[in-house]
Amino acid sequence: MKNKIKEYRERKNFSQGKLAELCNVSRQTINAIENNKYDPSLQLAFDIAKTLGVTVDHLFSGDGGEDQ
User: Fold this and answer.
1) How many angstroms separate the CA atoms of 42 and 17, rounded?
2) Number of domains forming the structure of the chain
3) Is 40 left (phi over 0), alpha (psi -120 to 50) or beta?
4) Residue 16 banded pLDDT, cuts 50, 70, 90
5) What does the pLDDT look like over 25-58, one tens digit per residue?
6) Is there a domain that residue 6 lies in?
């Protein structure tokens, strides 16, 4: 599942560590999600989206393609 977490995280000037801290996960978890090596739970996806101030559908796209 392609995601834009890094893009939105950088807009907020958050490090991976800061985002991880705010979402109560490890920095390694955020890194793995950003690199499409791990799909977050639904709850974690919502937590990340809320922390970054966007909706889940802005962060994730299931087709791996560009936004429509």
Assistant:
1) 20
2) 1
3) beta
4) very high
5) 999 999 999 999 999 999 999 999 999 999 999 9
6) yes
